[in-house]
């Protein structure tokens, strides 16, 4: 019986694999090939981010201008997504609302993630009473659901975009800190940390230069998940009247009162902002899952 040997990779195949591993563009294309859903999720988030950044040029109408002669106009021309109960163009408010969502989403995710990263690594590095006290504080904060704690913070600091960012940032800090601490505990025991101490490096240098880079994988995964959570929390706070206030365009404000009052007469008022929230949160979740699979060596080849 003839023995069938598997074909050996050609020089071109090996060069292509090497290019994909060692260049940024190659890694991006390889990620897109292996994780199409994650790539689609990233594209969705980027589309809304670009729309928010360029809202002043994309929006055909002033998102805050009332036009009582064009109230609840169905989608068509010149209002491609229709108008709301005050005659404001929904498409214009949607792209400006994307700017608000991205400012709050990325601001709260990055702020809460970075603070949680530093506190988690510092807690694992020092241990002892500092670790004990900090973890009990994290336990207290995590005992409250994110939206409940955000409501409490908003009631203290007040409403507005900046205060909403702070209100969502605070609940995200312990969630990031606990996960990062678990990874940093293993990093603390590796030989190069002991070698850095033996060389007389300061605590700050060991934490920032030797421990933080080795816990970036779970941090990046959390960061992508936090973006979707923060956008959803901002929409929830605005819907409840405790987030961004009129006349600033925000997806939660666009849903406020529209779902019930105009569900039959003008359903597009609630459909389009609701669809924007769903797509953005779904895109962030898909990208976060794909990023986890790509970074985790146990899941990398699946």
Description:
71% of the residues lie in helices and 0% in strands. The two termini are 34 Å apart. The radius of gyration is 24 Å and the shape is elongated. Helix 3 (36-53) packs across helix 5. By secondary structure, it is an all-alpha fold. The protein has helices at 11-22, 24-34, 36-53, 55-58, 90-126, 128-142, 146-157, 161-188, 191-198, 203-211, 216-239, 251-255, 258-261, 268-295. It has one domain (47-66, 80-295): MetI-like (MetI-like fold, Orthogonal Bundle), CATH 1.10.3720.
User: How many strands?
Assistant: 0
Give the helices and strands as they follow along the chain. HHHHHHHHHHHHHH
Q: What gap, in angstroms, lies between the N and C termini?
A: 34 Å
What's the architecture, going by CATH?
Answer: Orthogonal Bundle
Fraction of helical residues: over 70%
- Estimate what percentage of residues fall within beta strands: under 5%
Look up the CATH topology.
MetI-like fold
Q: How many separate structural domains? A: 1
* Main beta sheet: none
Shape: elongated
How many H/I helical runs?
14
Class by alpha and beta content: mainly alpha
The CATH class, by name, is Mainly Alpha
The CATH homologous superfamily name equals MetI-like
Mean pLDDT score: 83
Quaternary organization: single chain
Radius of gyration: 24 Å
Unreliable residue stretches:
none
Quick overview of this protein structure:
By secondary structure, this protein is mainly alpha-helical. Helix content is 71%, strand content 0%. The protein has one domain (47-66, 80-295): MetI-like (MetI-like fold), CATH 1.10.3720.10.
